[in-house]
Amino acid sequence: MPTQSGITISAPNAPYTIVNDIEQPTPGPKQALIKTLYVGLNPVEPLMQHSGILIPSWPAVIGSDVSGLVISTGPDCKKLNKGDYIYGCVPVGLNKFSPFQETFLVDEDWMFKKGANIGLEEGCTIGAGVLTAALALMDGQDLALPAPGAKVEPKEEWVVVMGGSGSVGRYVIQLASLCGYKVLASCSPSKKELALEAGASATFSHRATVEEQLAEIEKITEGKFGRVVDASTQATEISIKTLVGVSKGEAKYFATVDDWSEMNAPDSIKLYRISFAKLGRDDELGKHVTSKFVEWIPVLEGHFQSGALKPLDYHLVEGEGWEKVIEGITDMEAGKLPKKPVVKVQQE
Description:
Blueprint: E1 3-8, E2 17-23, E3 31-40, H1 44-51, E4 65-73, E5 85-89, E6 103-107, E7 112-113, H2 120-123, H3 127-139, E8 158-162, H4 167-178, E9 182-187, H5 192-198, E10 202-205, H6 210-221, E11 225-230, H7 236-245, E12 252-256, E13 269-273, H8 284-306, E14 314-320, H9 322-333, E15 340-344
Parallel strand pairs: 8-9, 8-11, 9-10, 11-12, 12-13, 14-15
Antiparallel strand pairs: 1-2, 3-4, 3-6, 3-15, 4-5, 5-7
């Protein structure tokens, strides 16, 4: 079997190692073999490297957001053909599907097919962020994703987003706005423009006291909301207090990217923990998450192609290759990169 280069990890907290002996996978039914061109870096990569979480076997190949080129397809592929460009997010922790190697496999239904208005670098900012946001709103809070081009009547109701300046938060803002809702986003004062540019109607400072935040939420929304999304993992207390003490919604929903901490939400609140990493897993939740992504990706793809949804800004790491991927992760961990890091891996 042909071998290829990439980055592996031999054990929890072991260093990233550049190797040349990774077996190149062969696509099966409805699968395509993708040449990795760019990767987008997320906090999940150093989390996996340090802790071993989400890694079922060693040595491990990791990675999440990616854009690339289809170089071959297996039987029954209908969406993807050789020469197509794709972007999106892969199932994390599954070696043959991971993009920190020259080529990797995808199930064609898991990927976005790149349109002319999305650059390869931009594509690396989309997958994990927008699909996490879709889980929060569509699966966790019973919103319906409109069809591309459909006219949605504006609603006199708000969605409150905690962490509205981050990658997931900005996609929550875009999707909630697409569904016709007004959005109130928390963020630091220095980053409020990011939330407003994503479509938020108003912002408030997460650095204020809980009491001050509750008062500001009530002042802006007049209690006309029943949905709160914590895209930050840091806002469980304020989110629950907001729904209990401020919301006038008949139904109350709280979706959070924190799927590990203990939480005590009242029975009146529908608590939803976002399990993005279940993509591609064979258990019941994994099959559910995967089926939802397969349902949403063509619709989201249409919204990106029309410009109704927009990719995020990013920081392109200077240079090319696996060494630059490791450098980008190190700088991201050190807080040196103000925007989402994107790294070019190899030429087409």
